[in-house]
Amino acid sequence: MKILIVQDYLRSGGTERQSILLANAFADAGHGVTLLTFRPGGALAPTVAGNVARRRLQPFDLGLDWFAPRLTAEVRRLAPDIALCMGRMANCYAGRIQQSMTGPVIATMRTGKTLPAPFRRSLATVRHIVANSREARDTLVQQQGLPAQKISVIYNSLVFPAAATLARNEALRAQQGATPSTTVLLCVAMFRPEKNQRELVEIASGLPADRDWQLWLAGDGPARAGCAQLAAAKNLAARVKFLGFQRNPTPLYAAADVAVHASWSEALSNFLIEAQAHGLPAVAYQAQGIQECFIPGRTGWAIPRDDREAFRATLVRRMEDTANTRTAAAASARAFARESFDPARQVVAYLDLFDRLR
C-alpha cells in the first residue's frame, strides 16, 4: 500500500511525534510511505527512518506553516492509495487533497482549539476522520454535525514506552538540586500560550513554602521567555527549572514524581499518557480528552479549569501519599497506559482502517 502522511512542519510537538511514529511503523510493516511536509527541516526531522520517503514543498524554509506550494500537483505525482493528514494546517488542506485523489483521504481531529473554516470544510469533504479521543469524536458530532459513522477513534501511541522496570534517576535529580525527598513536578510540552505553563508557575507560587518541591518545565517555544520572567518575578528561580527541548524525555519521567498539566486546548495529551506509562500520577486541568489519559481518581486527577486552590490541594495530597500508595498508583498507571496506548495496537488499527476504506 502506498501511504501518504501530510504534516506542515516537524517541530517538537506531540502531533509531529505521532506523525513520525506512524510513518516509521507503516514503513517497517512493508508499506511504501511518504512523509510530505510544507516546510523543510524541523527539530524532529532526524527521527524519520531511512525507509520513509521525505518530500518538502517549500524549496527552503520560509517560516510559513500554511504555505504549501504545488501541493495537489505533488499529491497527483505521488499517487498514493491513501492519505493521512496530521495537524491543523495539513487538515485545512485535506479537502483539497481529497479532490485531487481517487483514493480516500483521512482527516484527523487532534486539537481542542476552535477549528478554522478550511478545516471544517475539509472534515465535510474527506472520506473519513480519525479522532484521538472519544471526547474529540463527540465534539465533531455535536458541534460540527458530522455523522458518527464517518469517525473512528484511535488513541495516540506511546512514543517513548517505558521499560518493564524503571529505576529512579537520582543523578538527574541531583543535577537540578533535588534531594531524594524533593517532590518533582514535571510538565513536558511546547511553550505555546494554550499549553498554559504560566498557570503552572502561578499554581506553584502558592504551594506551602515549607514543602520541598521543584517544578520542571521541559520544552521550547514562544511562551518560554514569558514563563521564565514570571518565575523570576515570583522569586521561584531556585524551584522552577526550564530544561529546554528534549528529543527523548524518558530520563525526566524517571526523575519526576508527579505529572502536571494546565493546558486548556487538548484532544488527548501525549505528555500525560507518556507520564502514565512511566508510572507518574497526573494532576491536570480539565480539557477535552484529559480524563481518557488516566484512571480518574486513581492514577490521575482532573481539576476544574482555573481552580488553582483545588490544583494545589491535590498536589499537596500527592506529596503526602505513603510509599505504598505511590507504588500501587505507579503500577496501575503503567498497566493502564501500556494497554490503552500500545503503539503496535494503534498502528494495526490504522492499517485495518486503511484496508476497510480502500
Question: What brief labels describe this structure?
Answer:
358 residues; alpha/beta; Rossmann fold; seven-stranded parallel β-sheet; six-stranded parallel β-sheet; 13 strands
Your description of this structure?
With 358 residues, the protein is α/β, with parallel strands linked by helices. It folds into 2 domains: 2-157 and 342-357, Rossmann fold (3-Layer(aba) Sandwich); 170-340, Glycogen Phosphorylase B (Rossmann fold, 3-Layer(aba) Sandwich). 39% of the residues lie in helices and 17% in strands. It is built from 14 helices and 13 strands. The protein has a 7-stranded parallel beta sheet. A 6-stranded parallel beta sheet has the order 10-9-8-11-12-13, with helices on both faces. Helix 6 (134-144) links the parallel strand 6 (128-131) and strand 7 (151-153). Helix 11 packs across helix 13. The protein is globular. The termini are close together. The mean pLDDT is 95.
Number-wise, the strands total 13
Proportion of strand residues: 15-25%
SSE ordering: EHEEHEHHEHEHEHEHEHEHEHEEHHH
Head-to-tail CA distance between termini? 10 Å
CATH topology of the largest domain: Rossmann fold
Strand order of the largest sheet: 3-2-1-4-5-6-7
Looking at this structure, what is the CATH superfamily of the largest domain?
Answer: Glycogen Phosphorylase B
Give the oligomeric state: single chain
CATH architecture of the largest domain: 3-Layer(aba) Sandwich
Largest sheet: 7 strands, parallel
Number of helices: 14
- Domain module tally: 2
**Rg for CA atoms:** 21 Å
| Share of residues in helices | 25-40%
Unreliable segments of 5+ consecutive residues: none
Class from secondary-structure proportions: alpha/beta
What is the general shape?
globular
> Under the CATH scheme, which class of the largest domain?
Alpha Beta
The average pLDDT is 95
